[in-house]
């Protein structure tokens, strides 16, 4: 949805930044970002160092540093969930499945074949 107010145009996003930016595999990237944010929150709120997190979970402290820096390419969703569970968190994932909206062609000249 787009609204115009004077010189500013406000575009409402889909709720998934990765989708809005046209990135590949946006749903997985969004889920990984949510899980990483939860890990970072637990570490911060419980004042847990990456070394202490390693002791608690058996997962290398450098992995926790990567997650805190949101460098998530090397992590799978189940690995991030295992990190949270090792930090004493219960993780519940909900999945909604629905048809994708059809892509709308951008306005402009149409090709004639």
Average residue pLDDT: 86
Number of alpha- plus pi-helical segments = 5
What is the CATH superfamily of the domain at 25-95? Answer: lambda repressor-like DNA-binding domains
Q: How far apart are the first and last residues' alpha carbons, in Å? A: 33 Å
Strand order of the largest sheet: 1-2
Order of helices and strands: EEHHHHH
Q: How would you describe what is shown here?
A:
The chain has about 110 residues and is mainly α. It is about 45% helix and about 5% strand. The chain contains 5 helices and 2 strands, in the order E-E-H-H-H-H-H. It has a two-stranded antiparallel sheet with strand order 1-2. Strand 1 and strand 2 form a beta hairpin. It is elongated. About 10% of the residues are buried.
Any key phrases for this structure?
2 strands, mainly alpha, two-stranded antiparallel sheet, 434 Repressor (Amino-terminal Domain), about 110 residues
Task: Describe the secondary structure blueprint for this structure.
Blueprint: E1 2-5, E2 8-11, H1 17-20, H2 26-45, H3 50-57, H4 61-68, H5 77-86
Antiparallel strand pairs: 1-2
Concise structural overview:
With 113 residues, this protein is mainly alpha-helical. The chain has helices at residues 17-20, 26-45, 50-57, 61-68, 77-86, and strands at 2-5, 8-11. The two termini are 33 Å apart.
């Amino acid at each position: 949805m787009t609204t115009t107010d004077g010189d500013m145009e406000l575009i409402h996003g889909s709720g998934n930044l990765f989708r809005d930016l046209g990135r590949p595999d946006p749903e997985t990237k969004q889920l990984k970002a949510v899980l990483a944010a939860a890990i970072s929150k637990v570490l911060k709120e419980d004042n847990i160092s990456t070394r202490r997190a390693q002791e608690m979970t058996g997962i290398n402290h450098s992995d926790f540093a990567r997650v805190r820096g949101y460098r998530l390419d090397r992590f799978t969703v189940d690995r991030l969930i295992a990190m949270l569970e090792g930090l004493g968190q219960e993780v519940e994932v909900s999945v909604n499945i629905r048809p994708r909206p059809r892509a709308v062609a951008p306005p402009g000249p149409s090709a004639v074949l």
